[in-house]
Amino acid sequence: MIEHPNEVVTKAIVRFVQIPGLAKKAALITLDNGFDYKKPNSFGPGGLKSLDEAITTATEAAPAFIAITGKPYIFCVGADITGIPFLTTREQALELGELGHRVFARLKNSTIPTFAFINGAALGGGLEVALHCHYRTVSTGAAALGLPEVAIGLVPGWGGSQLLPNLIGAPGAAQVILQNPLTQKVLRPKQARELGVADELFEAADFLESSLAWAAAVVNGAKTVDRPEVDKDMWDGVLFFAKQQLDERLHGAVPSANKALELLALAKEASFEDGTAAETQALADLIMGDESRASLYAFDLVQRRAKRPVGVPDKSLARKVTKVGIVGAGLMASQLALLFARRLQVPVVLTDLDQTRVDKGVGYVLSQIDKTVSKGRMDEGTAAKLRGLVSGSVDKSAFADADFVIEAVFENLDLKKQIWAELEKIVTPEAILATNTSSLSVTEMAADLEHPERVVGFHFFNPVAVLPLLEIIKGEKTDDATLATAFAVGRELKKSSVLVKDAPAFVVNRVLTRFTSEVFNAVDAGTPLDVVDSAFDPLGLPMRPIALLQLVGPAVAYHVGETLHAAFPDRFTDSPNLKKIVDAGLPLMVDDEINPEVAKLVAGGSAPLSADEVRAKALEALAEEIRLMLDEGVVAEAQDIDLCMVLGAGWPFHLGGVTPYLDRSGISEKVTGKRFLPKGVGSLPA
Prior knowledge:
Layout lengths: L10 E7 L8 E7 L12 H16 L5 E5 L3 E3 L13 H19 L5 E5 L2 E3 L1 H8 L2 E5 L5 E2 L13 H9 L1 H13 L6 H7 L4 E3 L4 H13 L15 H16 L4 H12 L5 H16 L2 H14 L20 E4 L3 H14 L3 E4 L3 H20 L5 H10 E4 L10 E4 L5 H12 L7 E4 L6 H5 L8 E5 L9 E6 L5 H13 L3 E6 L6 H17 L4 H6 L10 H8 L1 H14 L8 H9 L4 E2 L2 E2 L1 H6 L9 H22 L5 H12 L8 H7 L2 H6 L14
Parallel strand pairs: 2-3, 3-5, 4-6, 5-7, 6-8, 7-9, 10-11, 10-13, 11-12, 13-14, 14-15, 16-17
Antiparallel strand pairs: 1-2, 15-16, 18-19
Helix pairs in contact: 1-2, 2-3, 2-10, 4-5, 5-8, 5-9, 8-9, 9-10, 12-13, 13-14, 18-21, 18-24, 20-21
């Protein structure tokens, strides 16, 4: 018998309601785990049992119809994945899959009409239970709909892979089951209606009343639900194209994506019973595989650890921020201005060397606001308010009443020290001085100030609006009030903040630069650029090394490399070939291929490596560097490095972050003599 000792049981509560126009009452089943929206409904063994009992109660009363809905803001977000670690055998995994299929199938096979009133977020098994119903409505207030299982190393295992393609067709199903999870997207209510996932879309204010009235009209024949016939002629072609895209992007490294493709192919002709039986087998295989445990480890980091950063001072020490100053008006500074204005809703002022640069920076912010309005993502009232909050000046005295000033200028220590020396004479004694430096010492930057305790590192990642990580760096003299304020601001900006010691290049840039250093060691030894670039395909990383270098910018990477070479010359080499690339100024990629001119530029060397050797050396270097970082206390635990790499560098969920992969592959123990994580964390139990 499967058990989940810590399950927060989502109860299925039945009530009977009389609806005008129907002789019989309707049975309304409400899913509710007894908590507010912050702890969403989910299905564990107890929740499935409760739903099973509720369907029995409803069916025995022979109502006009049976409808299922959720508590405020939440329909159901799927299986209770916190119970997966308690599944220690394949038989238990099979039992969980079969239990969900058996209970949900009662709605599909019911002789009484069944409806799902999707009032809020419906993900995974939550959307699957809705798909089993004969009809579906969705609220305009539903935050998200989707089948995200592939992103956490699983597949839709309770009917979704079979029901969805036969409801909306292969193209839409491939988008929801494969493309959206792998790009971290979900469906909005309007999209769900347009795709055919839902039959009707109703306003949130009176969603339940409208849904009940609509269901009554369907039952008494006043309304007819027409669904277009699914085109099966294009089914195989769509899946062939999807496989090509997966192979190009992931190189076969994500088992859940491959299994999902197989199930979608099966759904074309297989009976529902055969298709769901295959789902159960696939789900059991994946649950008992390392990739799903690794994905769940990464998911837990993002959902839990990111919201409870380690080492943060008491939030009562945080100072109120009523105005923000930004030194610089370039692209990064302008992105920061937009973010601070949108999230903090306080005045934001940019400064730069001349009015032309200031105007360009402010103009960028205003254009982005206008673009957001044109796309329907912001109303004109909010936009007008934001426009009024953002201003620019060539005079730093505009910062006199700012509570939080951040600099985003060129990575030069003397320049940054000069800026802080000027500002300290202008701002109030309590104002926080933050630096967006990517590699320089926060301690050295503040060394000559009268109040070095109020300087803190505030390292964003580009693009600022997209990447959620914020490295908050504590200098040697940074005080608790400054740190508490920094973390409070990070929360308001909706960033996931990690406390980092003031060490060269901090976390993400140090790990990536060690990686890049090993890559260019191989290039310098004579390994062809294309061999180096494809060496990491078996990991399924989001970008190959050369494309990543182009995104970061060779000059930026070289500069960070210089900082780390100066600090650790034995491990971070000063690559002559990377210097050649920077000096040449050539684009690294042309039409998504390595620029042949760049390949020719770096050709040569007498000791080329194979792809396997390149990969092995780079991974061993990562293990060494991460162990040294932990020994130095750069972060509290290995989990923080994994969190930084997932959120700041896109390290894939299926690997679980860096350290679980290094542990599973035996590299950690080979290089450092021990694992980073206890056995069973980020992998199957020992």
